[in-house]
Every structure is written in structure tokens, then in C-alpha cells.
Amino acid sequence: RFRLQNKSTHNINNKLQLVMKSRKYTLGYKTVVKTLRSSKGT
């Protein structure tokens, strides 16, 4: 039982890490697009 619980929490942690990575990536992409657009406008 303890083993199963540990495994599930590990999986959740992995998923969370993946989500955080993808979120960081999308945020970075959005900021890059914003800066590109603003530089084009000037």
C-alpha cells in the first residue's frame, strides 16, 4: 500500500514538473512575441 501511494505521488510530481516546464516555455514564447510586436511597431 505504501509503495502504491509513493508511486502515485511520484507520477503526480512528474506531471507537475512537465506542466511547469511547458508553462514556462509558453510564457517565454508569449513574451518573445510581445517584444517582437512592440519592436515592429516602433
Automatic annotation (TrEMBL):
Domain of life: Eukaryota
Provenance organism: Aegilops tauschii subsp. strangulata
Keywords: Ribonucleoprotein, Ribosomal protein
GO cellular-component term (any): ribosome
Keyword Ribosomal protein: yes
Domain Ribosomal protein eL8/eL30/eS12/Gadd45: 11-40
Annotated InterPro entries: Ribosomal_eL30-like, Ribosomal_eL30-like_sf, Ribosomal_eL8/eL30/eS12/Gad45
Alphabetized GO MF terms: RNA binding
Name the UniProt record assigns to this protein: Ribosomal protein eL8/eL30/eS12/Gadd45 domain-containing protein
